[in-house]
Amino acid sequence: MTDYDKQRKIRLQNAIDDYLQDDKVSPSTFYNDLRDCLEDIITYHQTSKNRAQDALELIMNNQSNSADTDKITTPKSYEYAAHITMEDIAKFQRGNSL
After folding, report:
1. Is the pLDDT score of 16 beyond 70?
2. pTM for the full predicted model
3. Whole-angstrom Cα distance, residue 38 to residue 46?
């Protein structure tokens, strides 16, 4: 057993002693508090797990989206604006309508 293992066991023993040596604390209080602590740990790690899963899902979706965008072809020209020339744009900027 390492020094840390011994220290951890001593801390656990001290916590147990704190409950069981106090005449005002029932064994059911010790049981309920211990159960609550374990449930808190489970909830904390479940929340962390869910957040990590959400992050991974975003990453995986982003990867699949970026793979999909590689397949998308961009148009070579803007057909809807093909009839507009630079001269037309200059006229528009001077206040003339197209």
Report:
1. yes
2. 0.54
3. 12
